[in-house]
Amino acid sequence: MLFYGPPGTGKTSEPEMGPITPAWKLTVTGTILALARQLFGPDLFRARVLELNASDERGISVVREKIKTFARETPRHVPVSSDGKTYPCPPYKLIILDEADSMTQDAQSALRRIMETYSRITRFCLVCNYVTRIIEPLASRCSKFRFRPLGQGSSQARIEMIASAEGVDAEDGVLPLILELAGGDLRKAITYLQTAQRLHSASKPPTQISKLSVHEISGVVPGTTIDDLLKVMGVEPGQGIDQSLAKGGFEAVKRGVKGVIREGWSAGQVLEQIHDAVIPIVSIPTIQKSQAALAIAECDKALCEGGDEELQLLECCLRIREAMMR
């Protein structure tokens, strides 16, 4: 099997990070490990399942030594489970390769023959974020399962359960905002909530988690800030071009950019959000969108090369404003 999709969608599981309480632990069990536990039970799980993180152990030597050695061993007889439950215990073992897209091409090539030779007694599950990094001969030997970003409903139910179990005190709208900023990544959403809780519980007295705190933790610029910046460039957020909004000219754009930078927001993040706000607007002509996208791309390149954030963002916003005024 080949599990692929964005991170934080429950393909495998994540290691516990620090002293987290049981409510947080309920969220980290992934699909393949949950399946393995249901197949083999607690007694045979260690003997029948080999889990490797390919980002740490990704060379051809690991394939030849650890994986081949485990794959060639014939499964032992099935003992009676100590917990009194009955498990299917199929007559094969399971090898889980997490982050398989980090394996070298030589290691992936060596894995092909092993998968074919020992498929009768050993099954494989490759887990990755980017399926295009898996070589085609290896991918063609697998049944592919795509994991999409988690839906708002299921993620919200889990986050609300955690917040209730942990006694999280948050303002109205904070939990939906966390899920929105996480973009379907449940692990990221839990990290935002956990960080915000520790931040606000450390103050004396403890305070409610605010939306601004969540924005600062995630690094995502508040929508109102982006909207104000769009308006001085002559764009009505969600609507289209409105040249009457850009009467302030150069000085208005300069004040808007300076305000964003003085608040400590990343220019790269601002560019990303401007792009996501402008490009989907249907009423903006294609030519203006192309010019705006080109300005954003050149600004991003300059930032990567070490350009000054305020100056580059100012130039980009002025170019977008000029495009919208035509």
Name a few traits of the molecule.
326 residues; alpha/beta; two-stranded antiparallel sheet; 14 helices; DNA clamp loader activity; nucleus; ATP hydrolysis activity; nucleotide-binding; Rep_factorC_C
Characterise this structure:
By secondary structure, the chain is an alpha/beta fold. The protein has 14 helices and 7 strands. Strand 3 (about 95-100), helix 4 and strand 4 (about 120-130) form a beta-alpha-beta unit. The longest helix is centred in the last third of the chain and has 19 residues, at about 285-305. The chain is elongated.
SSE string: EHHEHEHEHEHHHHHEEHHHH
Portion in helices: 40-55%
Dominant shape: elongated
Beta content: 5-15%
Q: How far apart are the termini? A: 53 Å
- Secondary structure: number of strands: 7
Low-confidence stretches: 14-29
User: Structural class, judged by helices and strands?
Assistant: alpha/beta
Our Rg estimate from Cα atoms comes to 25 Å
Number of helices: 14
- Main sheet overview: 5 strands, parallel
Strand ordering within the main sheet: 2-3-4-1-5
Mean pLDDT: 88
How is this structure best summarized?
With 326 residues, the protein is α/β, with parallel strands linked by helices.
Q: What's the layout of helices and strands?
A:
Blueprint: E1 2-4, H1 22-25, H2 31-48, E2 49-53, H3 60-72, E3 93-98, H4 105-117, E4 122-128, H5 136-139, E5 144-146, H6 152-166, H7 174-182, H8 186-201, H9 211-218, H10 223-232, E6 235-236, E7 240-241, H11 249-262, H12 267-278, H13 286-304, H14 309-325
Parallel strand pairs: 1-4, 1-5, 2-3, 3-4
Antiparallel strand pairs: 6-7
Helix pairs in contact: 3-4, 6-7, 7-8, 7-9, 8-9, 10-11, 11-14, 12-13, 12-14, 13-14
